[in-house]
Structure to design on (184 residues):
């Protein structure tokens, strides 16, 4: 019996799937094509990829604002502050996920990424934590800017592109983010 398959393609698809890159590409392809405030498929995919585990009222605020700002020029700070004002929660991770979906060259604030960068959000009051989240996100952006200039970053991106050539179009920041996220 003759079995014909491309072993590189099989491994690429399995690795990409384990990293959620298929979902990520769907999100990035659809974000500008659909109304994210009403598209259940987009929301389910986004929620699954980014592990959004919030109630319906919170998600309604989030996705309505996402739709409102996706074609504007929001900042991490404006997204974070809006979500805080509407929900009372300081949401740096979900703010960064909206921000990085609008601007794919921006990093994600994820607990594994923050942990791997040895960063921690501090503050005793909500106002201190909100202010410190803005500073910490700037630190994350600076780390990515600095790291992307290193030989290690170039090696990571080169290996990523060689192992997963179908995902070469993903930004360098997202490639590094995916690698950091995978180091749990």
């Amino acid at each position: 019996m003759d079995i014909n398959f491309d072993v590189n393609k099989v491994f690429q698809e399995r690795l990409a799937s384990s990293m959620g890159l298929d979902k990520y590409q769907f999100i990035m392809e659809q974000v500008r094509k659909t109304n994210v405030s009403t598209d259940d498929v987009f929301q389910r995919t986004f929620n699954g990829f980014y592990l959004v585990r919030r109630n319906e009222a919170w998600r309604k605020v989030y996705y309505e604002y996402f739709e409102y700002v996706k074609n504007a020029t929001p900042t991490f700070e404006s997204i974070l502050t809006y979500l805080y004002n509407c929900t009372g929660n300081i949401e740096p991770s979900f703010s960064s996920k909206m921000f990085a979906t609008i601007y794919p060259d921006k990093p994600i604030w994820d607990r594994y990424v923050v942990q791997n960068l040895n960063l921690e959000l501090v503050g005793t009051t909500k106002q201190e934590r909100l202010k410190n989240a803005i500073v910490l996100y700037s630190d994350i952006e600076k780390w990515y800017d600095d790291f992307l200039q290193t030989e290690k970053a170039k090696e990571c991106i080169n290996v990523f592109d060689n192992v997963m050539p179908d995902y070469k179009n993903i930004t360098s920041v997202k490639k590094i983010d995916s690698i950091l996220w995978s180091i749990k």
About this structure: Residues 126-147 form the longest helix (22 residues). The CA atoms of residues 92 and 113 lie 13 Å apart. The chain has a mean pLDDT of 93. The radius of gyration is 18 Å.
